[in-house]
Specification:
Elements: H1 6-12, E1 18-29, E2 33-37, E3 45-48, H2 56-61, E4 67-76, E5 84-95, H3 111-116, H4 125-147, E6 151-153, E7 158-159, E8 171-172, E9 199-201, H5 206-216, E10 218-226, E11 239-248, H6 252-273, H7 275-290, H8 302-311, E12 315-318, H9 319-327, H10 330-333, H11 349-360, E13 364-370, E14 386-394, E15 398-405, H12 410-419, H13 428-435, E16 441-447, H14 448-456
Parallel strand pairs: 3-5, 6-10, 12-13
Antiparallel strand pairs: 1-2, 1-4, 2-3, 4-5, 7-9, 8-9, 10-11, 11-16, 13-14, 14-15, 15-16
Helix pairs in contact: 4-6, 4-7, 4-14, 6-8
Bound molecules: 4-amino-1,4-dioxobutan-2-aminium adenosine-5'-monophosphate and magnesium ion.
Amino acid sequence: NKRVKVKDLLASEATGQEVIVMGWVRTFRNNQFIALNDGSTNNNLQIVVELGMLDENTLKRITTGASLKVTGEAVPSLGKGQKVEIKAKSLEILGDSDAEKYPLQPKKHSLEFLREIAHLRFRTNTFGAVFRVRHALAFAIHKFYNEKGFVYMHTPIVTASDAEGAGEMFRVTTLPFDNPPRNEDGSINFKEDFFGRSTNLTVSGQLEGELAAMAFSEVYTFGPTFRAENSNTARHLAEFWMIEPEMAFYDLEDNMNLAEEFIKYIIRYAMEHNREDLEFLAQRLAEEEKQLPQDKRSEMGLIEKLEFVINNNFERITYTEAIDILLNSPAYKKKKFQYEVKWGIDMQSEHERYLVEKHFKKPVIVTGYPKEIKAFYMRQNDDGKTVAAMDILAPGIGEIVGGSQREERLEKLTERMKEMHIPVEEMWWYLDTRRFGSVPHAGFGLGFERMVLFVTGMTNIRDVIAFPRTPKNAEF
Ligand code: 4AD
Ligand code: MG
């Protein structure tokens, strides 16, 4: 099989050899020039069909979206922007595409329209670039942790526990839909969900990650997680992917250092391996921002922003300092914030974005949050009020990472769990790690789609996951 990928062919610049290419037609001009795309790059391969080579009927079937197998000779191209094109010797139509019915026309479609045809949007330049960058980031994540000797753990999707203790779970049930078992009062007996246990989709792999870290020292998970929150925002999904490293013998400082190094590493990897796609996305973003009023546009282009992020330290502040900055901000004085600002609040996205976009103009790591607004497993600070939490806030996104040093002291942990109505008895297995060889440890969770948003410059989270699950998208 002499099939070559378009990207490799264009990169090699070698001419003279016979090759086979396969892909989908983007455009067909003058019954002579086919722009063929096979998803390896946004650069289409030009196929030249000699006049008279194909019969009328075949020519008519070369339409946008049709799939082709072309055998031909790679020759120097006179067209601008490409060094190689294919002089076709034979051409086979693998699959027709009715031009009248094919929803993708060779023109610019809105992202909203493309969301409705998520099954076809991969065939556009924007989504080609987004999903190749997404792939590169996923690969870089494994590469990063592998180089550091972390063990990749696969944690369960179906579980009986609520890792965050926030009650935002999707129920998983084996109960028959038509005739479920009932309690005496007639309500459905969900205790019978999973062959006699109540189960849900996982909100986080952290707890299992902690168990594994107590043996392997350094582990990470990278898998789908689910939140049954009814939020219709450009930053929330009901199903998203999360990377959760968990490290024994790390304190909060070590945790922050790892998170910062990790984020910079994967951005750098994408910049080195997906330059073309990122430049395409930078251009797309610049055009999109032209529609916005001047003060809503980014100060830096996408590439410039990414370069800035990998070459500068993240700002590190405490929650208390963050609240002070907000209280002293012009935005606060001019009553620009919709939500209240005072010590103790769970910062809203407007507050987080003020800190990173207006005040520091760079990623910010915030530590020492009030314990009331954070999960039960975070290590309590000596002040009795705050926990050793750390969130990383990113420009244009808000919270991208949530993490903490964990409470490794059995007494303190059980006490806190009781206060927060976390079922202590049921979580005996989690507490066992604190009973047998407990050690200081820490970890964090990076929301993968938020990271992809940040790197691609896309503005809606529905556009960086293939098939978004949100309260309004669950069809396919
Ligand atoms: O802050 P969260 O809820 O933290 C945890 O789940 C911890 N167990 C992580 C850990 O310490 N191992 O979520 C972590 C990150 C957030 O910072 C955000 O980037 C992302 O996950 N995230 C979401 N992304 C998309 N849609 C949602 N509904 C998200 N909820 C959280
Ligand atoms: Mg969080």
